[in-house]
Specification:
alpha+beta; 7-stranded mixed sheet; 4 helices; 27% strand; disordered C terminus
Length: 165
């Protein structure tokens, strides 16, 4: 199986409706919220540091995940709208998608938060190094290690800070 991680910019992929349907059957509404927020322009993942990625397995959309400015914590980013189709789980697709987003965040910020939603998701995020942190609307927090050898690069004050709406 070939896995391809693609940035989503101008429009949501057509297959997002299938992803939303599967998520809804599992009792999750976050993919529906992604579609609603995208259609109204409330969230397009286009502000500084933000990104929306799709994971494709053999050319078909297997999952989606995004990163936005963390409004509850200055200078942090937040994983959002992360979902992998049930049939695609356990193949490393979610890990590849999360690592691509974290790699993107590394050059922009030192802290990433996530709201895990359930125990299985919490275990997934913890396997990536996130630590339980049940405050300010999220369940987990990850302090990133920057790639740069420049000591100033790890200074959290250099992180992207959310813009006012």
């Amino acid at each position: 199986m070939t896995i391809d991680i693609r940035q989503i910019r101008d429009r949501l992929p057509q297959e997002i409706a299938d992803l939303e349907s599967e998520a809804r059957r599992e009792g999750h509404r976050h993919v529906a919220r992604l579609i609603d927020e995208w259609s109204t322009g409330a969230a397009r993942f286009d502000r500084d540091g933000e990104r929306l990625l799709g994971a494709y397995a053999d050319g078909e959309l297997a999952g989606i995940g995004g990163m936005t400015a963390e409004t509850a914590m200055s200078g942090a980013l937040r994983m959002r709208r992360f979902y992998i189709r049930p049939a695609m789980r356990g193949r490393g697709i979610g890990r590849m998608l999360a690592l691509a987003l974290l790699d993107h965040a590394r050059s922009r910020c030192g802290i990433v938060t996530v709201h895990a939603g359930n125990d299985r998701a919490a275990r997934f995020w913890e396997s990536l190094g996130f630590q339980p942190y049940g405050r300010k609307g999220h369940t987990h927090l990850l302090e990133l290690q920057h790639k740069s050898d420049d000591p100033a690069a790890s200074d959290l004050r250099r992180c992207v800070t959310p813009r006012s709406p």
